[in-house]
Amino acid sequence: MLFEGLELVSALATLAACLVSVTLLLAVSQQLWQLRWAATRDKSCKLPIPKGSMGFPLIGETGHWLLQIFSKIFSHEALESYLPKIQLVIQDTLRAWSSQPEAINVYQEAQKLTFRMAIRVLLGFSIPEEDLGHLFEVYQQFVENVFSLPVDLPFSGYRRVRERCPWEEGAGKAIREKLQCTQGKDYSDALDILIESSKEHGKEMTMQELKDGTLELIFAAYATTASASTSLIMQLLKHPAVLEKLREELRAQGILHSGGCPCEGSLRLDTLSGLRYLDCVIKEVMRLFTPISGGYRTVLQTFELDGFQIPKGWSVMYSIRDTHDTAPVFKDVNVFDPDRFSQARSEDKDGRFHYLPFGGGVRTCLGKHLAKLFLKVLAVELASTSRFELATRTFPRITLVPFFGLDSNQNKILPETEAMLSATV
Ligand code: HEM
């Protein structure tokens, strides 16, 4: 027992020594890197070299530069070009859900849906459905192992994440095929933008960087959007009055009309931004069921909080959930009430930091507009093409009747098909 205890202490001491050495090494190398650039100053010129960081040794400011390309991927123009594809992916998925006679698990299905969206819309891979299914399984294995102990042993989760072989194979093949097909064409998805922008910056991306980039994009988009989609469906199920109000808005805007659902690719960004109540519904889902509980930061400067000092250098976590739960601006915090975000009440307008489902500051979520767009299209399609209800009381299941037509005279929704879909949330 004593022997084991001593071994543990010595392992911890070694780990701590390694961490300290690596931190010191990084700090020293960054200073030397800074000096190296300062030394390149042309002494015959009196002007100083520009202020600012030279980044980290060798990689310099590549991370920052990549971040700028990330922003371009989520610009207004980019979102407008993704919209018809997002709508198509969602419509196809709802059709598939409705053709299934047995119960489906909404969270699992939402994961597949967001993965498909990321693959087809963000990356533009035109791979067959079977390959997509295989890639999804490979990706899920990767995600399951991401939060494993950093122990590099054969068959350990850590080793699997480091090797990433099956993902590399699948993504590599899809990227090569895509590059061959799209050469000389206008770019239309996030991966195209990534490739084109890097060329514009005089830095062509290597295959490894492209594979890593695709993995990072999907990682950021996948579980968060799947979780929010599930919460959205669940809340629409539990609050029929909200769903009806949403349908009224869609009718008023001419989206839900006598022909039934919106036509493929017919939605536009400005149409969606005009749907005020839909915006309130999405905001309320994100307030009450925030997919990310919080984020980590390093304190750069000592500051005071509630009479205590938080010293420089500490690692701190900001909690999105606690913030939403305790923010004084929200009345009846536990009640699902989209109208709190209506123009008349605007509960989120008092104070900048009470509502932050997508984080805040410089590291705020880059994909927030894309995520909101996706959720809005999902809500529009669900509300206008389907009737759904909880199938059991004990465990939330839904029953969904797809593809309605509207009786233009009576303005009632009539089922065109009896196909039922039960889904488990
Ligand atoms: C409902 C869905 C989503 C939620 C709730 C969400 C939430 C967040 C939050 C809270 C952060 C900040 C974490 C921190 O403070 O450290 C973040 C960062 C980020 N998100 Fe999202 N996200 C969502 C969807 C997406 C999508 C679809 C993408 C696009 C692929 C995306 C890309 C990113 C990126 C790239 C960052 C890192 C930004 C940086 O470090 O500068 N997210 N997200």
What does this structure look like?
It comes from Sciurus vulgaris (Eurasian red squirrel). With 425 residues, the chain is α+β, with helices and mostly antiparallel strands. It has one domain (72-126, 181-424): Cytochrome p450 (Orthogonal Bundle). The protein is built from 14 helices and ten strands. Strand 3 (303-305) and strand 4 (308-310) form a beta hairpin. Helix 3 (76-98) crosses helix 4 (106-122). The radius of gyration is 25 Å and the shape is globular. Mean pLDDT is 79; it is low at 402-425.
Could you give the order of the helices and strands?
HHHEHHHHHHHHHEEEEHHEEEEE
CATH superfamily: Cytochrome P450
Largest pleated sheet: 4 strands, mixed
On the 0 to 100 scale, the average pLDDT is 79
Class from helix and strand fractions: alpha+beta
Look at the structure and give the CATH class. Mainly Alpha
Radius of gyration: 25 Å
User: Which architecture per CATH?
Assistant: Orthogonal Bundle
**Separation of termini?**
47 Å
Number of domains: 1
**Quaternary organisation of the protein chains:** single chain
Low-confidence stretches: 402-425
Number of strands: 10
CATH topology: Cytochrome p450
Bound molecules: protoporphyrin IX containing FE
Number of helices: 14
Q: What proportion of the residues form beta strands (DSSP E)?
A: 5-15%
Kindly state the percentage of residues in helix: 40-55%
User: Looking across the biggest beta sheet, what order are the strands in?
Assistant: 1-10-7-6
In one word, what is the shape? globular
Protein name: Cytochrome P450 26B1
Keywords: Endoplasmic reticulum, Heme, Iron, Lipid metabolism, Membrane, Metal-binding, Microsome, Monooxygenase, Oxidoreductase
Family: Belongs to the cytochrome P450 family.
GO molecular function: heme binding; iron ion binding; monooxygenase activity; oxidoreductase activity, acting on paired donors, with incorporation or reduction of molecular oxygen
